[in-house]
Amino acid sequence: MWMRSDRVLVGGVILGAGLLFGTVGTSIAQDAGSAVAPAASQTAAPSADQRSARERGEAKIWGLDGEAKDPAAGVALLEQAVAEGDVSAMRTLGDILMWGGPVPADPQRGVTLLERAVKAGDGRARTILGKHLLGGWVIPRDAARGRELLEERVAADDPDAQTALSQFYLYGTGLPKDWTKARALAEAAAKAGKGEALWKFGEMLMWSERDPQAAQAALERAGELGEAGAWATLAEGAMYGFLGGRSTSRAKFAGYAAKARAAGNDRIEVLDAIRQMWGITLRASGPKTIERLTEAADAGNGEAAHYLVALLRDGNQLNIRKDRPAAQAALDKYKTLFTDGDYERYALSIEAARRRDPAGLAAMAERVQAEPGALSGDGAKQLYAANPNLAIYLIQQDLKKQGLYSGPLDGLAGKRTIRGMARVCRTLPGDLDCREKILSPSVVGAILTRE
């Protein structure tokens, strides 16, 4: 995806810090990166003494059905349900422990619980465990078994498994990239009423510019299946000229933006602010951009709040200056729109942005390494955007430990650093470009967060 963006100097190399920060090539890990809270019941919940230990545990973990949010108590109830042989509780708790979030992650225990649920015949546990084994995000990759588990569920016409396997083939994560298989699986899931894989396929097809009409058709179908993000993707493609030529494409923005808003999509307000910032069919204005994002965040738009904090932290080298005190003030003002982990990661990135001298890099590297989860989620991306030299410094430290770098720890991406990064990059999944895009956010983030 082309995007004008902040440009930063790293060891003599100019790079766009915003390039690929959008949805292009998004790994399936981002979709699978957290356990999903069960939907709140639309009917009156049974009284506490009528609900099972698992139901009460889920309610306490996520704060549902009138329960005060108490993750620790919720886990205790789920453990009780597991001890009673509740297979759904094994799957639910296993899923939560793989990534953590409401409670600390414990992948080893998570795998044990998921394996028990799989052995008991739980199909959803098969899909969850298959995704983790194939993705290799928090446990060692076992691509053969992961694919086997997912294919078993695909054979049973499970749209969740079809969606997951489609994206593994689409992005080349753990499997060779195969868009033909990705599309077939996306179509199968769409027939069952699930449009996520069709959305992701259409998105990749659109940004690749292989077939704009087919991409538009796939994304529209995904939107009609209830994927609000597909309408926002279409709006984004329209504004950047990816839907049939620049003027023809941009004329489609308003219609897709209206559909995205009607579907309750938050990202569309960020896209409108980006149009204002860069002057895409609007007069470019930094102050109006900040005003748009602030209004959206005031209305409870979490995506706008995240984008606003990052923009104030980094500036854009055109019409918005870096203002780190304002970034911290915005982060504090909109704290309720961030998860606890995201709040800490953004706060760390703001602090890191101020520390670019050698002593500061060393001190911040120590801080990052001492904080569990500092690079999880989009932490690596935010850290690289805020202080690319710190990200390179952290990579240099790791390369030294592996004997892949003998130069100074200076945070500069010189030839020896690039050579070491490329060697590590070639061992990572996901069909990364380890030559031309070795300093892109997607590659640097993958190197920073690798096990």
TrEMBL record:
Q: Which superkingdom does the taxonomy of this entry point to? A: Bacteria
Q: Where is the signal peptide?
A: none
Q: Which Pfam families match?
A: Sel1
Q: For this UniProt entry, which segments traverse the membrane?
A: none
Q: What is this protein called?
A: Sel1 domain-containing protein
- Upper lineage ranks? Bacteria, Pseudomonadati, Pseudomonadota, Alphaproteobacteria, Rhodobacterales
